[in-house]
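Ticket #4471: complex job returned nothing on first submit. Input attached below:
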Amino acid sequence: MSSAWSLHPQLAQDTIDIGDLPLSRVLVIKDANYPWLLLVPRRADAMDITDLDEVEQAQLMTETTRVARALKDICNPDKLNIAALGNMVPQLHMHIIARRKTDAAWPRPVWGVVPALAHDPEEVKNFIAALRRKIWLDK
Amino acid sequence: MSSAWSLHPQLAQDTIDIGDLPLSRVLVIKDANYPWLLLVPRRADAMDITDLDEVEQAQLMTETTRVARALKDICNPDKLNIAALGNMVPQLHMHIIARRKTDAAWPRPVWGVVPALAHDPEEVKNFIAALRRKIWLDK
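Support reply: We reran it on our side without changes. The output follows.
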């Protein structure tokens, strides 16, 4: 079913892989401006949510809210932004972003507003460790 | 449960009400630049998807994909954009937008790129009639 799936090279380049949920790969975007995750369903040729079957759509919602809750618990944001756009990279991917009223793009959507900012290695390591605990173990 | 819910005044001003699904109100954004719908779950105080319970989250995904399929069938877009942002209007609302590679904002997200364009009254009437048939009767 997912035999032919592989992560789009652009997404691979822009992210850190933090592990797989039953349907989706969980990735952190390499941009310290915002706590910003992606979920990529491991389904070959899926471009829009409507390309998933109903079971997969429900699973994507379950995984999205699970990851969103983890992000919310860790970052205590003012707002979550959740979006499947894919105008630049066609492979279906769900953005889950913790927004703060003090962040670089607020109140605009984050895409294309300011250049990506490199993470502090220690900070991103701690962020990923906290996410892993929340997403995989703190069910 | 939803007794205290009412549509946010800004959303009411910017949209045409086309009817209710079991969870959400379906609205057309008054902007002829893009075929652009909103789903607003009729749940008081819901701001993020994580504020819905699991049954409501699943229902929102069902309604989102149903409306997205209808929009896809009618408009035959190059891409769907689906997003819950809410940085400006806090009431939880899901954008479902049919994007074309020739549209005013492509490949950027639509928010804030060009001013809203008034609909041709006849065209929007036909669009809404087609949507109603697809969403409510063509199950």
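The radius of gyration of chain A is 14 Å. Closing as resolved unless it happens again.
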